[in-house]
Design brief:
The chain has about 260 residues and is α/β, with parallel strands linked by helices. It has eleven helices and eight strands. α2 links the parallel β2 and β3.
Length: about 260
């Protein structure tokens, strides 16, 4: 499994840089604009400059509406700013066809500029709360649009977690469908160290966290601490070794 950490500022990205050997992807988002809120282009550039060159930078382009042209431009902006993983939160898409249309525009915009960038169609484990596409539709949406991966997060940050809305067996089906389509499967949403064995067992490719590596486990008031990143990675590696996973293959594909 690959470990994706989401700092909320350049200062926190520098803390991630201190723990660079323990993480795989540094994610740029703006939590006060939503679960997958987009940050400014200059923040993406600054984070790209702050972390080691061999660490990919991921950027969210927002919890987006069903506006394919707007979203394609936003995705291109994130790519130009230095991100090599582009995540799109399909918040405003109520049908798979709408989501595919949005993601096709993103894939074209991103790949025309940087063919080696990875595009991730992101949905929500708690989709039933906001009326967007079903989580298990995401892998097919990603496949049909030419995306590289499918991801689940939680839309409403109210203390509930990934497994509260999509139980492990549903997440395992999501991962299976993604792999069957030749996609990376990413899971996030208040993931804790205690979830890692289950995530490794189902073959998750990318695990996204923030609160689990912040002081006090608080994603809002706490700050990312390098020693917590190191401890989380140690537990992740133990679980992958014990329960299996596609870590080596995924790392090779992402390099």
């Amino acid at each position: 499994m690959l470990l994706l950490i989401s700092p909320d500022s350049v200062e926190e990205a520098l803390e991630c840089a201190k723990a660079a050997q323990h993480l795989d992807i540094v994610d740029v988002k703006k939590p006060d604009e939503g679960s997958l809120g987009a940050n400014h282009p200059w923040v993406i550039r600054a984070v790209r400059d702050a972390v080691p060159a061999d660490k990919p930078v991921s950027a969210t382009v927002g919890d987006v509406p069903y506006k394919p042209g707007t979203v394609a431009q936003a995705a291109l902006g994130a790519t130009v700013s230095g991100a090599t993983y582009i995540k799109v939160g399909l918040y405003g898409c109520t049908t798979p066809d709408q989501a595919v249309e949005v993601m096709r525009g993103v894939v074209r915009a991103v790949k025309d500029f940087r063919p080696d960038a990875l595009v991730v169609a992101s949905g929500y484990a708690d989709a039933h709360r906001i009326g967007c596409v079903n989580p298990l539709a995401l892998p097919d949406i990603a496949r049909r649009s030419g995306s590289d991966g499918a991801m689940l997060d939680t839309a409403v940050k109210d203390g509930t977690r990934l497994f509260d809305h999509t139980p492990p067996e549903v997440c395992a089906e999501f991962v299976r469908l993604a792999h069957e389509a030749g996609l990376l499967a990413a899971l996030a949403g208040s993931v804790k160290a205690g979830d890692l064995a289950e995530l490794a067992r189902m073959g998750t490719d990318i695990v996204g966290v923030r609160g689990a590596v912040c002081e006090g486990g608080d994603r809002n008031a706490g700050r990312i601490r390098p020693e917590l990143v190191a401890a989380f990675r140690t537990e992740m590696d133990r679980c992958v070794q014990q329960h299996g996973g596609r870590g080596a293959a995924v790392a090779a594909a992402a390099s």
